[in-house]
Amino acid sequence: MTAAVVTGLGVAAPNGLGTEAFWKATLAGRSGLAALTRFDPAQYPSVLAGEIKGFTAEDHIPSRLMPQTDHMTRLALAATDWAIGDAGADLRQLPEYGMGVVTAASGGAVEFGQRELENLWSKGKEYVSAYQSFAWFYAVNTGQISIRHKMRGPSGVLLTEQAGGIDAIGHARRHVRKGTPLVVSGGVDAALCPWGWVPQIASGRMSTVADPDRAYLPFSADACGYVVGEGGAVVILEDAASARERGAPRVYGEVAGYAATMDPAPGTGRPAGLRRAAENAIADAGLTPGDIDVVFADAAGVPELDRTEAAAITGLFGRHGVPVTAPKTMTGRLLAGGAALDVATALLSLRDGVIPPTVNVRAPAPEHGLDLVTGGPRDTDLRSALVLARGYGGFNAALVLRRTDG
Amino acid sequence: MSTGSTVTLADLTRMLRESAGEEEGVDLDGDVLDVSFDDLGYDSLAMLQVVGQIQREYGVRLPDETIADAETPRALLTLINTTGEISQAG
Q1: Quick one: A309 and A230 in the same domain?
Q2: From the list B22, B46, B55, which residue is nearest A126 (CB)?
Q3: Which CA distances in Å does A148 have to A61, B23, B75?
């Protein structure tokens, strides 16, 4: 079977705009978590966020697209431009039907949608943008990327909350295997507005701590929920042979294994599905747990969920059996963009032989039995990485990435 | 283009920019009066958006079916300034 490889990355993250800015900040342990400024959160219990700073949409987005795009879609379009540039792909040389787009989404463009609903309530239907017809839609990033770059091949959108970034890449790999040479994938999300905030608060999992350094402490004894951020990553997934043929400047790694599972309904007493997802992804890659050099954890930061994940990891790898990290402590959880950013981060780790740290956690709670990378980055030879993600509602996803340079 | 409530080409291009942006390679300040909206880079949704703005700002009512027939700025301005029911300019 043909190998699906990542040849380009585009990152928009709260601690760095652009792949190298993000990677430098991440290795330095610089966090993007701070007091929320996009709207006044004073009346809500959660007041921190990972906001992307310094993104001037007009610098990246054509004038015609400005009135019809939400902040989320603008970030996605910018990240896609960067990823395509990184891949050195001359799209005019590739057949339109040989390029697809599969991204992850959660609630769609809620900031755009909130503004138009406010127009409807406060001024009347004549004031609602005609572009509301599609701009809010959760498939809008896929659609706008497809239109902008004339990618008419198989396309779609996956919604599995925080697991979506992995599920989208897994699905993109299916398209590559079925003969589509290039698929734009990943996920970029943003919901930093009251309409996007309230439903997340209702999950009961968001941190209510106001100190950015103490609010999101996954696997710590002080774990108290997570902070939400915006952004994500776009990856260019290609058939290895056709990437080689067109002279792709670099291959970050192969998407070697993928699996997804669902948790059982609450109260059934059956085990959570995360371990099975990880096992299946490793087996799908033709590897064994001993071949995995680092795990990028879902790191919910909710004590019960941390226990479930730690049990899945130690069950597969043994106690302290594999380095585990959660650089999302520097960005917050990015909804549909989170797992995609973890995939990009894992590929950069493989490239440079270094594991970025889990910040703000001094040491994991001993009960978890994890070798959590804290304090600073850890240099080590890396060949294969496992990325884990869970989405609200019982979604589990796992991706195995492997270096391809021998 | 005389009375205060008449919509001019300058008014229209301003609203096109605000409502739907400006296509790369198109200069709305150029000689566009008889260039089709299609050639200016505006699709039907863009026209819906800009006509919505015209209706709000000038208090005119333009039936959807007549808008589709106005394929150029000149045709749309004629439609607005002759058949639109113009109330007090907003």
Answers
A1: no
A2: B55
A3: 11, 13, 30
| Helix pair A71-87, A110-122: axis angle to 10 deg | 150
- Mean pLDDT across the stretch A354-383? 97
Inter-chain CB proximity B45 and A130 less than 8 Å: yes
| Residue finishing a domain among A225, A245, A265 | A245
| pLDDT tens-digit map of A371-388 | 999 999 999 999 999 999
Tell me the CATH number at A297. Answer: 3.40.47.10
Q: How many CB pairs under 8 A join A and B?
A: 35
Domain B9-83: assigned CATH number: 1.10.1200.10
A223 and A270 co-located in one domain: no
Q: Is the pLDDT of residue A339 over 60?
A: yes
Distance CA A115, CA A384 (A): 44
Unique residue bearing structure tokens 């064994």: A288
Question: Which residue range forms the structural domain that includes residue A329?
Answer: 257-402
Instruction: Judge if A80 and A32 occupy the same domain.
Output: yes
State residue B90's pLDDT score.
41
Nearest to A63 among B21, B49, B56 (CB): B21
Between residues 54 and 93 of chain A, which touch chain B (CB distance below 8 Å)? 62-68
Q: Are residues A9 and A141 in the same domain?
A: yes
Q: For A36-61, what is the mean pLDDT?
A: 97
Burial grade of A313 (CB within 10 A; 0-12, 13-18, 19 or more): buried
What pLDDT, on a 0 to 100 scale, did the predictor assign at position A91? 86
Contact criterion met (CB < 8 Å) for B21 and A65: yes
Mean pLDDT of A63-74: 98
Q: What is the ipTM of this complex?
A: 0.87
- According to DSSP, the residues that pair with A4 across neighbouring strands are A239
Report the C-alpha gap between A310 and A275 in whole angstroms: 10
Which percentage of chain A shows pLDDT scores above 90?
Answer: 97
Task: Look at residue A1 and tell me whether its pLDDT is greater than 50.
Answer: yes
Chain A contacts of B27, Cβ < 8 Å?
none
Q: What is the DSSP letter of A177?
A: H
Domain count, chain A: 2
Query: Are A322 and A239 part of one and the same domain?
Result: no
Question: With an 8 Å Cβ cutoff, is A126 touching chain B?
Answer: yes
Looking at residue B89, what is its pLDDT?
44
Cross-chain Cβ contact B56/A127 below 8 Å = yes
A198 and A275 inside one domain: no
Residues whose CB falls within 8 Å of the CB of residue A100, separated by 6 or more in sequence, listed in order: A151, A153, A154, A155, A172, A175, A180, A182, A183, A184
pLDDT of residue A406: 54
pLDDT category, B85, cuts 50, 70, 90? Answer: low
Mutation target for A interface from B13, B14, B19: give the one with most A CBs within 10 A: B19
Residue A251 covered by a domain: no
Q: Is residue A156 part of a domain?
A: yes
Q: Are residues A240 and A143 in the same domain?
A: yes
Asked if A85 and A227 sit in the same domain, the reply is yes
Residue A339 domain flag:
yes
Average pLDDT over residues B46-75: 90
Contact A131 B49 (CB under 8 A): yes
